[in-house]
Design goal:
alpha/beta; Rossmann fold; 8-stranded mixed beta sheet
């Protein structure tokens, strides 16, 4: 198959959406498919490159950063090069940008019969800007319903995301495929530590207020000063606009000496950090899946998540523990101590946690089914 994937932002950058597109493209390429990712070029990278076996085409737009991804240059590119790309199937990623809306309408205008797949990566509560918070309902009414009706299949990562999509429009379950995201490796063996050793906590991802990192810092203070646990440390890996707020909070709570800050790490290094940690925490307001939770579990590291959105769907996995949102520092500290002092078994896992090659097989089945339906209609 010739598969065309589209995305507004740079897929080689950190982030769950980027990783999903990157890993699916890589896995499908290994299976012999010709995969091209067509995307914007916010980082001024090469216009074209072969990356991990698939092709990336980047189209620069002056307006994309100012008008929620609206990219006239991308639409002209598609118009002029669509016959050259000649895809069998198109998979558009991203609901929270006008880039995807424009791409969808342009491709539909050029070829009404080509199968269109859409992965919204839908965050019903994930709005960091004022415009995003106040225009969300308007966007859903005037564009959301049209998008979901124009595509042939919708792929989501969780039941929560499926329900969020259905809240926008009354879409049948048959049109929506739930395919959970994947992990790189599965190795739950851990070196058993002495309970008197340091409690090594870890967070990895974008530093945003909705990720709940502030609650982890508050729990570190609770552990150190109120529970009198001197052997506690927190590693925070990532970058983002909320970092200054977090460093200020750590200073205010007098726990900055207990926290190690690291920028985003390459996957092998990040996996090493997850492997040696005692507990991974993701205390988000909203997640469509929670890739880093699955990654931590697959490396044998117990996790704590909030009982919200898609995260609560991972609480059935052995080694994953839940806490109410917003987390109470004392209750969170008590849960951390309980996990640290217990012999926690992590895994085996359900089908919600699999390696990327297995996940890509499900994408492949969706594509093949749509192409088969197209052939049937043409006869």
């Amino acid at each position: 198959m010739k598969i065309l994937l589209t995305n507004y932002s740079e897929i080689t950058s950190p982030g769950g959406v980027h990783k999903t597109i990157r890993e699916i493209a890589k896995s499908l390429s290994k299976k012999g498919h010709k995969v091209t990712v067509l995307q914007a070029n916010p980082l001024d990278l090469p216009d074209e490159e072969i990356y991990e076996g698939f092709k990336i085409i980047r189209v620069k737009s002056r307006f994309g950063n100012y008008f929620y991804g609206l990219s006239p240059k991308m639409y002209f590119y598609i118009k002029n090069h669509f016959k050259e790309l000649n895809p069998d199937i198109v998979h558009i990623h991203g609901y929270h940008t006008l880039f995807s809306v424009g791409v969808l309408y342009k491709i539909k205008k050029l070829d009404k019969k080509i199968p269109l797949v859409f992965s919204p990566h839908f965050g019903a509560f994930s709005h960091d800007t004022l415009a995003g918070k106040y225009l969300w309902g308007v966007y859903n009414i005037f564009l959301g319903k049209r998008i979901f009706n124009l595509v042939d299949r919708i792929i989501v990562a969780s039941k929560f995301e499926r329900n969020s999509v259905k809240d926008v429009d009354s879409i049948s379950d048959e049109k929506i495929a739930i395919i959970p995201h994947g992990v790189d490796i599965l190795d739950t063996k851990k070196i058993k530590k002495n309970r008197n050793e340091t409690i090594h906590l870890i967070y990895g991802g974008h530093l945003l207020e909705l990720k709940g990192i502030q609650y982890i810092i508050e729990a570190v203070r609770e552990l150190y000063y109120n529970f009198k646990i001197q052997n506690v440390g927190l590693t925070i890996i990532g970058e983002g606009p909320y970092k200054q707020n977090l460093t200020n909070l750590a200073r205010k709570l007098n726990v900055e000496h207990l926290i190690e800050w690291k920028s985003f790490l390459p996957p092998p290094e990040f996996q090493k950090e997850l492997k040696k940690a005692d507990i991974f925490l993701l205390l988000s307001l909203s997640e469509n899946y929670g890739i880093t939770v699955a990654e931590a579990l697959c490396l044998g590291t117990p996790t704590i998540v909030t009982r919200r959105t898609a995260l609560k769907e991972l609480l059935d996995e052995l080694g994953c523990f839940g806490i109410d949102y917003p987390p109470d520092p004392k209750a969170l500290s008590e849960l951390i101590i309980k996990i640290h002092e217990s012999d926690i078994k992590v895994g085996p896992f359900s089908d919600k946690i699999r390696i990327w090659d297995k996940v890509a097989e499900d994408y492949e089945k969706v594509y093949a089914e749509l192409l088969k339906q197209k052939v049937g209609k043409c006869k």
